[in-house]
Amino acid sequence: MNRYFGCGKYRWLSYEATDRDLSEHELDFVARHESSCARCEKHMAKGFAALNMLRGQTLEACPKAGFDERVLRRYRVISVRASLRYWSPAMIGAGVAGLVILAALQMITQSSQIPAFSAPRGEARLSTPAFPETLESNIRYVNQ
C-alpha cells in the first residue's frame, strides 16, 4: 500500500490512453507502475468501471415527428428577425428621405398656383397734424 513515485503521471497517462494512443515508452511506464502500485490500480479500476457504466447508460434520442422542420423554421424566423433588426434604421431613414423629396416636389410643382403675397414695403399716409386746431392757430398767428 505504499505510494510509489509517478502515481500522478500514471493516472494522467491512464486517462490519456482513452483519448489517444500511447507511445511504447508510456505504455511501458503504465505497465510497470500498475504492477507495483496496488492503490493506483484500484483507483483506475474504479474510474474505468464508472466510465463504462456511464457509457452503458447513454440514452438514444428519439425526437418527435417534425422536429427537423421546427428547428429549420425557428432558424429562419430568427435570421429574418435579425436581418430586420439590422436593416430597420435604414428603411426608416429611406422613408423619411422619400417624404422630404415628395414634399419638395409638391412645393416646386404647386408654386405657380400659390397666391402671390407680398409684404407692404411702405405705407402711404395722409399727413395730418397731431393737434389740428393748435397747428391752424399757429399758422394763423404766423400769417398775421
The mean pLDDT is 78
Shape: rod-shaped
The first-to-last residue Cα distance is: 152 Å
Structural class: mainly alpha
Low-confidence stretches: none
> In angstroms, what is the radius of gyration?
50 Å
Largest sheet: none
Task: Report what the structure shows.
With 144 residues, the protein is mostly helical. Among the domains are: 7-56; 67-108. 69% of the residues lie in helices and 0% in strands. It is built from five helices and no strands. Helix 1 crosses helix 2 (24-36). The longest helix is centred in the middle third of the chain and has 43 residues, at 67-109. The mean pLDDT is 78.
Key traits:
mainly alpha, single chain, about 140 residues
Task: Walk me through the topology.
Elements: H1 7-19, H2 24-36, H3 38-56, H4 67-109, H5 132-143
Helix pairs in contact: 1-2
Summarize the structure.
The protein is an all-alpha fold and 144 residues long.
